[in-house]
## 1
Amino acid sequence: MIKLRNLERRYPLAKEKFFYVLRDINIDIQEGEFISIMGPSGAGKSTLLHILGMHDHGWRGEYFFRETAVHHLKTKERATLRNEQIGFVFQQYHLLDDLTVYENLDIPLSYRRYSKSERAALVADTLDRFQIVGKKDLYPRQLSGGQQQLVGVARAIIAEPKLLLADEPTGNLHSGQGEEIMELFRKLNDEGMTIIQVTHSEKNASYGKRTIQLRDGWITKREQ
Amino acid sequence: MQTFFQDLRFGFRMLRRSPGFSILAILCLTLGIGTNAAVLSWIEGILIRPYPLVPHQARMFALVGTTRGVPGHNGLSFPDFVDLQKNSTLFESFIVDRITGTTLSVGDRAERASVGIVSPNYFDALGVKPILGRGFRPEEGTGRNGHPVTVIAYRTWKGRYNSDPNIIGRTQFMNGVQHMIIGVAPERFHGTFVGYSFSFWVPTSMQETFDTTGYKLEDRGARWIEGYAILKPGVSRQQAQAQLNSISQRLEKDFPDSNRGHENQLVPLWKTPFNGAGNMTSTLAITMAVVFLVLLIACANVSNLLLARSLLRRHEMAMRLALGAGRRRLVRQLVTEGLLLSLIAAVGGIAAAYWCRNALVLAFPPPLPGTVIDFPGQIDWRVLAASAGICMASTLLFALVPAIRASDVDLSNALKAEAGGVLGGSSRSRLRSALVLVQVSLSFILLAGTGLLLQSLIKMRSASPGFNTNVVSSVVDLFSAGYKLDRAKIFHTQLLDRVRTLPGVESAALTRVIPFSYNVFSSAPIEVDGYQPPPNEQPTVEYVEVTEDYFTTLGIPIISGREFMRTDDENVPPLAIINETMAAKYWPGKNPVGQRLKAKDRWLQIVGIARNSNYRSKTETPVPFFYVPLRQNFRVQNTLLIRTPETPGAMMNALAREVHALDPNLAPLITERLQDQIDEISYSQRLAVTLVALFGAMALFLAAIGLYAVMSYTVSQGIHEFGLRMALGAGTKDLLKLVMSRGVRLTATGIMIGAAAGMMLTRLMGSLLYKVSPRDPLAFGLAFLVITIASLAACFLPAWRATRIDPVRALRNE
């Protein structure tokens, strides 16, 4: 599904000098995999995730996504590909404070080509599937952290992406809520969704089928 | 459409979430849009479509008489009006009117009211149907004093006659003649004299009853009425003017004595020179320009607020982009939110404009008894459409750039948990500074303009019109009291003698028309011994009838020859005193005293040359003018001029006693200083100053808010820096200096830009300025001072806040 070749991300420091965040990254990821990326702070985990999620465009190297050469795509084409194929879950949930749960779920659909009735049906299904129908009219500030992240995951998958990227999805949750989210990820993966998560937690990483270790921008270890 | 409503709904929610921002932004825009809507409504109601009930105003033009080789304009004679009607084919109709006053007899009391002497087709041609009774019939326009009928205004019907439904057929004494009320005009019809409301209308046949200067319906040389022409549909102004020219030429050929050099011009209603429209044109044009600047400043302010808010919403924008929204989509959403602000402001602004539609009247001096000043704004679909256009345009102006900036988010940085980064921070700050520069420079231009107008007004007030403005004037209405010429002559002679002996009276005289009055001077084609006018030109000069001591009383020096004497009456040959300009024009290099000029078929001998003085306004260019002895040209109605240190009130009492002694049924009507009359006539300058000062203050207020917002924002963004500086030993003074210097730099740059632009723009105000250079250093200096003080005040509060920061907390928070 994903093939990265000689990928690097750097920032200019002075004349002809650069600070490398990622170096010589080569990764192959198959459809249906559940990958955990680990490493200390500043290792480049989040940067890698945002490159995979096509939020970051300042990298060099080759990136193939389901046979599409992302490195040849223009920014707008990458955005279209991202919208069609990728969902994102954030550590800080990033729900829109001024929208209700229902509207937060509706918003990614409203940016895609769904009719009003299709959107209503999909939101209703998702609310049902995540068992948050009773919370549909509440605002994010009226939910607990776990509930907010649940909505965050629901929003990430509502448009039926092929790949789910999660950046420290349980970082702001207590252990019980974290486990619920990880179980949800496992379930989604079992249903066929490819998942890549960034985590500091060995326990959370164990939900994945493979772990990639990063340090100072280099891949130091690949574990099955 | 669906997304539009979705954005609109979200926009509403955002407004509710930040009420402070919303109120401030809506207030700024309401000021901007509201002032524009108000001025547009005045332009519509006063200049473009001054007659709300008259359809097809686009085809209606003022008919202005001119004389070749003579600057200015004159009116239309009744015989010319009849010939124009008879001989034209491209005109739907011509109408004439003449505003005058009347004395109403109400029981044993007398009251003043304004009357329009109008052609009998007046109401039919205008398409105005009386709500009760009828308009005038064709036969009621002719026959000397043969048809004492009147149509009354709705206001008169309601106020004076208590909305009596059976008013038709009742009678009203006007100028001592019993008139039958035949109709009541509709509520919103005030007549065709822009600026004043008529109370009564009478047909032209009654001219002699209302005009003190004699019967004129058969006098082709008496150009006493003001005309309007309504073109047939599809006829262009050029075609109509061509036909008018050919009729005027034919009249000139047929009646050379009265019509030589006389032409008739079709003039758009907004340029009508003989009513309030002409006076208001330049004032409203300047005001429109000023409120447009106010709108720009308001937009810059709201732009600044939106830019500040976009920083608070960067997380939301980043999320929306991450969830699939394109930049265009985000821009559309933000512009929709801006549109929502504008729409609310537009509704408020139009409501305010509606509320202010009659506010212009407040700038006028209290009207004379019986007159109603009327400068109504009109909010019709055209004003609403223009306001909607302004609303849309201002949305694009204030919302588009912040929307584009707000949607310019680096997703990767924005979404990382630890980052607050939004690229473009420094460019956003530059943009905000640029907006403040725009505000400061526009405010500077407005303040400099206000200063120029204010100085102009002060200079105009203090400038001498060439005569003593402390002279008290008063009128005794002999005409309405039914005095005939001989009796009036005796009365006025006796009154003058009595007044001259009153304590405190230094001198007194009579004149038919006082300077700076709404009444017209006499005018006549002249011939001058030894002066050959250019071919096709008929020199026509205005003159006034005055008694002995006129020049002494008004303090106008006689520079050669002598003043009129009491003995200059019908028993001596006709005499004249000319002004300096007339002397220079017709007797260049010669002394005209002892020479002759011919006017109204009489040769007048020149006995003196008077210093030039102003006749209608202080800004007029000197024109030839002459004076004739009143005792050789007596009229029933005259004005008494009294030079006295006493107040008009004290004079009024003494005068009333003398008038009463001569005739117990009479009383002096108005007693005021000539300065009051000058103030009344120069209302357009005063109005311009009032409006520009008002809107200039508004602009300054908005600009100060803008500067305050930017400085507050700078301080809030620099808390860490200030904390650090304090921790390193910076004192209150250092921090104040640091913050204030940024505000001062912005202000100084804004002032420089404003001064440069102001130098160019204030030249456009030339027509409103009097003896003041458009680059007057005092006006620019004052603007500099006011802006600097306002800016320093706007910067001080945020700077003071910066010095109150707790360094420990500031550093820990970071």
## 2
Amino acid sequence: MTSDQFRRIWFRFGELVTEHRDELNRLDAAIGDADHGTNLARGLAKVAADLGADGASTHLAGSCRQVGMALLSTVGGASGALWGSALLRAAGALPEAEACDTATAVAAARQVVDAMQSRGHAELGDKTMIDVWRPAVALLEASVAEGMSGPQAAVAVAERAVTLADATAPLVARRGRASYLGARSAGHVDPGSVSTALFWRAVADTVAHS
Amino acid sequence: MTGVLLASHSKRLADGLKELVDELCHGAVPVVAVGGGHPLGVSVEMVVEGAQALLAQPGVDAGVGLGDLGGALVALEAAVEVGHLEGKLLIADAPLVEGAVAAVMAAAIGEGPEAVAAAAAEAGQLPKR
């Protein structure tokens, strides 16, 4: 992965979230406070501005840190804290260089999911974005271990992520605002899982076409 | 002395609670309120700034943070890591109103951050009537 690809993943993620903003807000209205799309779109606009600014870092670790800080400062609530601190953690796994090998990029993705879990205390099946993040990263690791190229693996993960997000619908929320609804949260797809699937689509769109 | 940081999705809610606990402890315990407005929500940045303001007050050597909903707790805990506040800001798993009252009462009698956080957490177990 090059630092140019890394930045373009975030530009693409911002585009996708903006396109799906109303849908994400609608999903969040059912089991949360109806602002997930707006909140994330605002944060990703700041991310794009920071990554594109004069004097912005050109190496992977620095760009990843910029993303984390931008999300922490602009996305309120749990999403901002979870995404932001996860990206700051991932920055520690990336080199201060313009490019890294696939194994390093996969290790950074592992840092993201581990940081999100330790910060948010969510387990698999709690109806949170961990329900997409954890199996997605596991599939990424397995695919690369089996000899798939990074771009091929990213496409496979992006496809699986959509299925995983849809599979949150029957779950009863045990973490996050939706948990106050108890059994009434079943029947609604988790908005954080849908935006996580959009992130993986952004990764696939970017690395498969460059 | 231990100070108290109140974090709410609504700054007005945090400010109102600060007004209440300031009155209860006659202003003896430094309390800082942070929260959202437009938009509502607790950001890591506002927690870090609030904690720094609390720790900068004379005589305050540590703080205990309380949040209203789960998202506020996530932001509080992330702020400890990002703001390098380990050992300086302890996060209490406590109900916001009762926990804040218990926290300032414990802080007012000179308890350290661990005891203040424990008092706040125990407040969740007390029956209201």
